[in-house]
């Protein structure tokens, strides 16, 4: 039962993160992540948040939808590993973007709040 409660708790945390990302506003996203958060993906490798924020602020990258289904949560003290499947749509350099990915978010508990430290994306094989 504890596992189901954790999945529900982190589903809400991920939903809030999704809302922040589709706002396309750096200040909203910063409420969900640590100051050293990074994004890891198959095309860009390790992308520091400054690089991610830069393409958002320039409008090169936008998100219009984002969903995640949480499939697994493991908590180790103040660290949580959250794995699920996510889909999103938006634009990259003016072109439509659509992704279906396996997502692992690493969270750290800071001041009673779970903040994302790292997001790792792996495309779902079609």
UniProtKB/TrEMBL annotation:
Per its UniProt record, what SUPFAM superfamilies does this chain match?
NTF2-like (SSF54427)
InterPro entries attached to this UniProt entry = DUF4440, NTF2-like_dom_sf
- Boundaries of every DUF4440 domain copy: 12-115
Q: What is this protein called?
A: DUF4440 domain-containing protein
